[in-house]
Amino acid sequence: MSAVAIQDVTKTFRQHVAVDNLSLQVPRGSIYGFIGPNGSGKTTTLRMIMRILYPDRGAIRVLDESVDGQRDGRSILDRVAYLPEERGLYKQMKVRDVLRFYAELKGFRHCGPDIDAWLKRMDLLTWADKKVQTLSKGMSQKVQFIATVIARPELILLDEPFSGLDPVNTDVMRDAILELRRNGATIVFSTHDMAVAEELCDFIFMIYKGRKVLDGTLESIQDVYGSDTVHVQLDGQSVGNDLPGVVKVTDLGRWQELRLAPEADTQVLLNYLIQRGRVRHFEISKPTLHDIFVRIAQPIDTLGEKLHA
Amino acid sequence: MRKMMVVAVREYLAAVRTKTFVVTLIIMPILLGGSVLMQWLLRDYHDTRAKTFAIVDRTPGARLFSSIARTVESYNETTNDPVTHKPLLPRFELQQVPASADTPKAIDEQRLELSERVQKGELFGFLDISADVLKPGQGKTDQNEDSIRYQSNSPTSREFPRLIEKPLLLAIQAERAEAQLGVSKEKMRQIMRPISVESMGLTWRNPATGEVEPATLQSRYAPLGVPIGFVMLMFLVIMMTATPMMQGVVEEKMQRIAEVLLGSVRPFDLMVGKLLGLTAVSLTISTVYLGGAYWAAWHYGFHRYIPLELLAWFIAFQALATLMYGSLFIAVGAACTDMKETQNLMWPVMIVAMVPLFLLGSVMQEPNSALAVSLSFFPLSTPMLMILRQSVPPGVPSWQPMLGVVVVMLTTLFCVWASGRIFRVGILMQGKGAKLGEMLSWVFHD
């Protein structure tokens, strides 16, 4: 049983193909991360799941109901919620009123206690009777999040829920998402924060130029790339560029991240580095999601080319 | 349906529960009635400094001057408040100037000299009566514009010429009659006693007392005020409610609220919800104003000029007009991405909405002319023109407003449907606004 089942979906705006022959299964009760560069089709996909847009071709089933351009079956929308990337609140309304409005719009009538509970949890209780326009960016982001989940939806789509939050609020938001999942909800969110995606997501989906380029658990994605990454720290100096079997050097400041060519020998590399200077740190690891993202979005070698071709 | 109501309630409260709404509600009649009110308040504030006029009476023996002097004298007795003796109006003072020689050059010289005195402020103006005025007319060409002239550099100040015009005419006619017919001036004045035609309403029987109530002078103004009031009110309410609604739609687009809403409501339901809220707001405003006006009319005994049936028609047309224009305004809002763009798309709607205002005068003059009747069935102007024609006595045949309601209803349904299609596409469009042609293509192509 999938919360979302996307089957061969294509969406075109004029000449621009926003989503190209996409298929995707989101299992119920999972946290699914959408990543991809700006303009790659994440928001279009989310909007099609929400039936704000309709696909040109293909079919989308949400909570086992079809969304193939048919206008009926609308009540499904009461079970799905969407947080758009930019704020979506009436600035002139009071926080409590705007939350009640969104709850009632989803058909959730006796929402008073839930609103109070959420406001308390998000540390916003003192702002309940203030107008939205008086809130800071982070606070209105939290209010928007409450507005999204207030009607107890089964499927929650969040477009960039963590953007603009400080570390404390990021933790609050993450805990809230995890609790919603514990209570049975399915969560799909898009993010540019790879660390958050690594920590939080059961599955990661990457879309690039309208096409699916990654889909699976973090481990399965990393396995595709193998252990081709070496983190190095030399005493008091940088590693330099012309290293044997290394295709790319990323200077992270105190560290250097080296990407190895396929079939490169780490032993040869270590020997070479020892001759250069004192090695303080040498760690062979799988590439981070960040690194994988950059490899796909900014391909420099055949591996990336092969993957997104 | 339930979601429509949730949207409608929010729109209504968002519109009504603001300070701007209350302030506008109070300020609007003040602005409208303001100019009338100011004139009424300032009616007693005249420049009470005395004004001096020179009179050049070129008739033999300057026979007309005494008549002018008498008129001014009796006027000067009324310039002070009878109780407080404070001056209310300026006193007029006359200076008789001996006539110059009767040659065109000398006359022009004298007029120049007097004009210069006006320039210097010694005189307010001067009256020049030619000797010709006492001659009897010559049939067709007896209109001689140069016979009596009043010259001044304040052409808008008409009190003095208006004051002396009729008495002077009478005096001239009496002089002529005496010369031609030998009738005494006194006798002639009696014969020539002026009469004017007074416009009044109808005499009516008061159902409460059974007495016949006389027609009054005031009753002629009520049948003018009621229709103008109705049309102005309807226009104002549409503008007061539909414009903020349009701005609201643009705000929803700019703040991405539209996306959240469309995640819960169908675009059409969202738009209809907005329209219902809008209509409720417009009826609230109408109720406040009409209630106030009716109470005032009742208080001063004018309420029989506002039949309740007419009020019911007004409410019906008001509601339909709000729906019709509201849907157009919402479509404009949905097609634009910022407030500036709405201006360009607004003007066609505004011009159509203002047509009834342009035609106000001619329709009131001839409420049943072919033009008035046919324009009142042009759906976009039906609400305002039909209520205008209904409220000008004697009214219209009852099939006309009924047909009007049907016509407007059909148009409203079409407007709501077409706007719904524009809304559906436009509400998610970002970046740049649509042109009129694009909007039409959204309506007719899928």
Total count of strands of chain A: 14
Q: The biggest beta sheet of chain B, please?
A: 4 strands, mixed
Average pLDDT of chain B: 83
| Structural class category of chain A | alpha/beta
| Average pLDDT over all residues of chain A | 84
What does it look like?
The complex is a heterodimer of chains A (309) and B (446). Chain A has 309 residues and is an alpha/beta fold. The longest helix of chain A is centred in the middle third of the chain and has 16 residues. Chain A is globular. Chain A has a six-stranded mixed beta sheet with strand order 6-7-8-3-9-10, with helices on both faces. In chain A, strands 2-1-4-5 form a four-stranded antiparallel beta sheet, covered by helices on one side. In chain A, strands 12-13-11-14 form a four-stranded antiparallel beta sheet, with helices on one face. Helices cover 32% and strands 28% of the residues of chain A. Chain A contains ten helices and 14 strands. Chain A starts with a strand and ends with a helix. In chain A, helix 2 packs parallel to helix 4. In chain A, a hairpin with a 2-residue loop joins strand 9 and strand 10. Chain B is mainly alpha-helical and 446 residues long. Chain B folds into two domains: 141 residues, D-Maltodextrin-Binding Protein, domain 2; 226 residues, no CATH class. In chain B, helix 3 crosses helix 5, helix 7 packs antiparallel against helix 14 and helix 10 runs antiparallel to helix 11. Chain B is elongated and about 95 Å long. The model of chain B has no long low-confidence stretch (mean pLDDT 83). The interface between A and B is medium-sized, with 30 and 20 residues.
